[in-house]
Design goal:
The protein is about 75% helix and about 0% strand. It contains nine helices and no strands. α4 runs antiparallel to α5, α5 packs parallel to α8 and α5 crosses α9.
Length: about 220
């Protein structure tokens, strides 16, 4: 008899979690299709099902819904990329993989549409801008800095301060994202070979990739 209330409570939690996921999915799709300003909570409810009361209960308002979508979903993907480090990898291999995965994620057309929304909201909402910066740039830099600190302690010949290296490496990808978001894709992306060469250039400067051997003059 004592198990029944617990079972009922868990079922309600699961139901709310499913409803929350459906609302976030619908909001993401509609924000990308119609923009943030062009999307109403009514449109989101029509696509996700449920009621406006549930949206208000779970997210508070449309701004709360945007924050949940950005901070819980979109940023978790970046965190997962940085966390997926194979200890058997060489630093160069790790950074090539991270760079490629970040580039694929951050320059995805749907993600860039959300970046434009975030940029616009940041202009209007200083608190949102600060929270976004703290939970994106700062956390990403911290994750990269931890990697460079590990390699520094391993005496791998790292050249430069881990924080400076993290800023520089992250800047390579983020600058591409900003250019793509502002230009709406009119700027041509680097080819796979060019992207790899740029990463190698960073690795050489950081002391994590052997420098080319200069041929002696005859």
């Amino acid at each position: 008899m004592k198990l029944l209330p617990v079972f009922g409570k868990e079922t309600e939690t699961c139901r709310l979690n499913r409803r929350r996921a459906a609302i976030l999915d619908a909001a993401r799709a509609l924000f990308i299709e119609f923009g943030y300003e062009g999307t109403t909570l009514g449109m989101i409810v029509d696509r996700a099902g449920g009621s406006l009361a549930t949206v208000y209960k779970l997210f508070g308002n449309k701004d709360g819904l945007l924050k949940a979508m950005v901070f819980e979903r979109e940023l978790s993907s970046v965190t997962a990329i940085l966390a997926a480090r194979n200890c058997s990898e060489e630093p160069a291999e790790t950074l090539h993989r991270i760079a490629a995965e970040l580039e694929a994620h951050l320059l995805n057309a749907d993600f860039l549409a959300l970046v434009r929304i975030v940029m616009a909201r940041s202009i209007e909402d200083a608190q949102f801008a600060k929270e976004f910066y703290d939970r994106t740039a700062m956390r990403t830099r911290a994750g990269l800095e931890d990697l460079f600190e590990i390699w520094r302690k391993a005496d791998l010949g790292l050249q430069g301060d881990p924080q400076m290296l993290a800023d520089t490496f992250m800047g390579l990808i983020v600058s591409d994202m900003h250019h793509a978001a502002i230009s709406h894709g009119s700027i041509e992306r680097l080819t796979t070979e060019q992207f790899s060469q740029r990463t190698d250039l960073f690795l050489r400067g950081a002391g994590l990739l052997p420098r080319p051997i200069e041929h002696l003059r005859q």
